[in-house]
Amino acid sequence: MSSRTRGGISLLACVLTLALAAGCGRMFFLDGVPGEGISPKGGFFYLVDAGARCIRMIDPDFRVVQSWSTAEISRYDEVRGIAFDGANFWISVATDQDSIYKVAALDGALIVLARFEAPPVGKGVVRDLAWDGSYLWALNSGAETDSIPARLYKIDPASGGILGEYDLPSAEPRALVYVGSNDNAYGNGPSRGFYYTDTGTDWVYYYDPVKRSGSQYLAAPVPPQGASYTSPEGLAWDGQAFWVVNTSSLLDHLFRVDYLGNIKASVELPFLNPGPIAWSRSDPRIVIPVVNAVSPNVGARDDTMAVTISGAFFLPGNGLRVGFVGGGIAVFADSTAYVSDTRIRTVIAIDADAALGERDVVVTNPTGKTGVGRGVFTVAESNPNEGFVWMGDQFNGIISKISVSDGAVVQQWSVAGLGTSSTSIQGLAYDGAHIWMSMAGTEDQIFELNTDGATLSVISAISAPPGIPDGVVRDIAFDGEGALWALNSDTVDGIQNLYKLDKTNGAILQTIPLPGTGTRGVTFAQGRLYIDEYSLDNIYVYDFVSGTWSVAFAMPVPPGGTTSNRYSTGMTWDGFNLWVANSTYAYDYLMQMTLTGQVLKSIPSPNMGDAQITGLTFTAR
Fold first, then answer.
1. Is residue 73 within a helix (H) or strand (E), and if so which, with residue range?
2. Taking 80 as the threshold, does the pLDDT of residue 94 lie above it?
3. What's the burial of 185, exposed, middle or buried (CB within 10 Å: 0-12/13-18/19+)?
4. Can you identify the CATH homologous superfamily of domain 384-619?
5. Less Cβ around it within 10 Å: N or C end of the chain?
6. Distance (Å, rounded) from C-alpha 328 to C-alpha 348?
7. Which residues make Cβ contacts (< 8 Å) with residue 256, sequence separation at least 6?
């Protein structure tokens, strides 16, 4: 051990020397006591060795336990960045390819799961990547000829689309890591955000994308050769300490540095050209597939249907299999197709005498690893996907009947022909015989409608609660026991309520305060009361015993959109799944989802972009 001082900070260096056996797939060993590794956190390092063109998986005792060649992916170009999302690697390849790859790491090879162009297209160099738990982030050192500064890019991992751009406060950024939390028992540690190295200043910087500001955080470790050999090319965080890879023309080192800048240990790296590094507790070789949902998730007896299994960590190749537990459902093996690491398609046949009820669905990867989705498919007497969703369009004053199977509009009715003083459709409900509609504005009534012909007519009407002029009636729903429920928002006294009504005369039987200021949809599912709340972007469920609301799940993002495009309105129940409307111009969709929030199907609304979707209801015919 030795100690030295730099910039007023005492640096304690524990240098461990390693010997390397040549070759990308070979091991090197810790020169010390086995089990007393340099990293007290356990887990694994994933280090890009550009010289050997591979990714090395290194355990806490600094043994190379696996190496993956990147030659087939990078070809003649160089891997410049790496991130690990807990299951798969993300790597950036510079020069001619200028691409970012999502890859699965098996025992013997890397399998490309997705590829998209590195941001910004054709300009600068993506030096490193980071994963924040939901999004991918790319650090680009900029392009002087194109007047593009060094930037951090927030990327949608599903599409590769750029969600945000952030100018960095230094000119030569290299390594990047995201710090989400720390494991210090006293809560001490670096602030949540991004940290990156700069080879021009030899500092580690902190950057906060929320504030769009960054500053120098700590000086990069100086290698034994001296300050002129400082070049921080890799950066990782293990929950307690930073790990900095220093690459020089003589010797390369990996430093363990605490959040105050003190060097706690260093390792001499016997690699050809080490660079970007990531750390994780997870081992990508033992990732198990996850089955979240099946769409459609209901099938009738004696039916053959195509289904899509959604989840995570699916792998392509021979041996990918899908099975339904419980008998009575056959899978056409040659129809099973890998779509992506989150989707598989196949075709099933349900026997005429198949037992009714839920089925577990099993996905087996080519590696032999198996995942199970519990109760994600149901065999039923009838298939709700052969039914119809009814949609109210307030802006156009139209009620549309839409086929669930193909999204086709079967029939439309204008409410203008009712002779009412308003066309402000707010909610729809079905009592088993007739469609009911709530109408706001000067009408402020709930109508029972006759929809048998080409035009609508009123069978009966009741006043909307709590009475004119207090608030705006919104969505309505029947509870399966004969009572009608109606939402009311924007009340004079600031209280928003849900009312239980006698449908024959509109008498208020019960009042339930709502959890937010933007409730628009209401329905009953499996005997439980659900609402959607656009201002909080949540679906809520009500406990009648305790009289409290709780979040069931977050409102899903509409196809092609982001969280800013969410605006939930009407909702309904088809007997097996929820339907929730999203009404935001180009993102007008009717989304079918499970009670856990898994989206099964999205149907573009009629008059998309010009519609103002309000109420929804479902009928089997």
1. helix 71-74
2. yes
3. exposed
4. TolB, C-terminal domain (2.120.10.30)
5. C
6. 10
7. 38, 39, 241, 242, 243, 263, 264, 265, 266
Question: Residue 412 pLDDT > 50, yes or no?
Answer: yes
Give the residue extent of every domain in the chain: 2-284, 288-380, 384-619
- Cα–Cα distance measured from residue 151 to residue 139, given in angstroms and rounded to the nearest whole number: 6
Which phi and psi (to 5°) does residue 563 adopt?
A: -60, -25
Cα–Cα distance, 403 to 411 (Å, whole number): 10
Over residues 131-184, the pLDDT tens digits come to: 999 999 999 998 877 788 999 999 999 899 999 999 999 999 999 999 997 766
359 within 8 A of 375, measured Cβ to Cβ: yes
Do 2-284 and 384-619 fold alike per CATH? yes
Cα separation, 418 vs 72, whole angstroms: 68
More confident residue, 501 or 385: 501
Q: Give the total residue count for the chain.
A: 621
For 228, the 3-state DSSP assignment is: helix
What pLDDT sits at residue 41? Answer: 63
Higher pLDDT, 472 or 19: 472
pLDDT digits (tens, 9 = 90+) for 547-569: 999 999 999 999 999 899 999 99
Model confidence at 190, pLDDT cuts 50, 70, 90, reads: very high
Helices (H), 349-466: none
CATH tag for 288-380 (out of 3.40.50.150, 2.60.40.10, 3.40.50.300, 3.20.10.10) = 2.60.40.10
* Contacts for 86 with CB less than 8 Å, ≥ 6 apart: 131, 280, 282
So what's the pLDDT on residue 499? 95
Q: Which CATH architecture best describes the domain 2-284?
A: 6 Propeller (2.120)
Q: Indicate the pTM of the whole model.
A: 0.78
Query: HSE on the CB side for 457, CA within 13 Å?
Result: 5
Closest to 223 (Cα-Cα) out of 267, 261, 275, 260: 267
Q: b/e per residue, 568-601, with b = 16+ CB within 10 A?
A: bbbbbbbebbbbbbbbbeebbbbbbbbbebbbbb
Task: Give the C-alpha distances (Å, rounded to integers) separating 604 from 191, 273, 376, 573, 618.
Answer: 42, 51, 25, 18, 16
